[in-house]
Structures are given as structure tokens and as C-alpha cells.
């Protein structure tokens, strides 16, 4: 399965030392140019360690950078002008690439993805799915969840507890 990823999953999984789970979970991880610019180019300029991790994944071919169709990006922004350019490019690229998972954490972006008929998931889905497939242990998945939150990943207490419950249920 292919995934088209927005900035947040890349940044936070990298910060938590768990980018490898994303790369194990999907046969192909694609990011549009605007996401690469935000995560890698601007991240390196600001000295963010996770930017270097994503850059290395691109250089080794684990993450592919592709141009989103300009006309489709403009249509997405017309439909939902509140989206950031990167989110619009993620959605436009996912529409072009066909069946894939869209990895977005932003609530507005997720709502637009649903309207466009795309299958959308977030960072926490990657963690749960990776644990369910045995790419990481339940204990490590719980540790990564805590590292995500400690690293600035914003999640409601309800979603945090639900994610813990789903991970813990993998052992039963």
C-alpha cells in the first residue's frame, strides 16, 4: 500500500525515533514538494534534527518526493481555502496516485480528504497499525506514544487514552 504523507506525521514520528515504522508499514511513502520544503528545507535551516532524518529517507529512496498537479491543488484550495499549501498538495497528489492512504493529522485537512473520497489516517494510526503487524512491540508502541506527546504532538486526552487502549488490546 502507498501513503501520501503530510508534514506532521513525518516530523513527529522522526522526533519520536519511529520514522522506520512508517517506512515498514507502507510499500511506498510519497510526499509532495511543499511538504519536503516545509519538513526538510526549512527544518534544516532551523536546525531541527528530524529534518535530517527525513532528508536521509528521501536520499535513500524510502520517501519519494513528487510534484502535485497544479490544477488539482488549485481546485482543492478553491474547495477548502483554509488548508495550507502542503495539505492541498497532499490531497491533490493522493487523488492523482489513486488508491492510497492519506496521512494527515489536521482536522480540516482530514475532513476535506473524506469529502474527496480519500482514505485518511493520522500519526497515531501508523503507531497502532505498526504494532498490530508486529513491526514494534506493544511496550515500545506505548513508549513511542509517550515520546510523541513529549515531543509536542498535540492530542486530546481522550484520543491519547483510546490509542493506549487499542495498543494494549493487541496483547489480548
Please give the alpha-carbon distance between the first and last residues. 27 Å
Beta-strand percentage range: 5-15%
Number of strands: 5
Structure classification: alpha/beta
Number of helices: 10
| Model regions low in confidence, pLDDT < 50 over at least 5 residues | none
Radius of gyration, taken over Cα atoms and rounded to an integer in Å:
15 Å
Description:
- There is one protein chain.
- The chain has 10 helices and 5 strands.
- By secondary structure, it is of the alpha/beta class.
- A 5-stranded parallel β-sheet has the order 3-2-1-4-5.
- The longest helix is centred in the N-terminal third of the chain and has 13 residues, at about 35-45.
- About 45% of the residues are buried.
Pick out its properties.
10 helices; alpha/beta; 5 strands; globular; 172 residues
Topology:
Layout: E1 2-5, H1 7-15, H2 19-25, E2 28-32, H3 33-45, H4 49-59, E3 63-66, H5 70-79, H6 85-97, E4 101-103, H7 107-115, E5 119-121, H8 123-132, H9 138-150, H10 157-168
Parallel strand pairs: 1-2, 1-4, 2-3, 4-5
Sum this structure up briefly:
The chain has about 170 residues and is an alpha/beta fold. It is built from 10 helices and 5 strands; from the N terminus they run E-H-H-E-H-H-E-H-H-E-H-E-H-H-H.
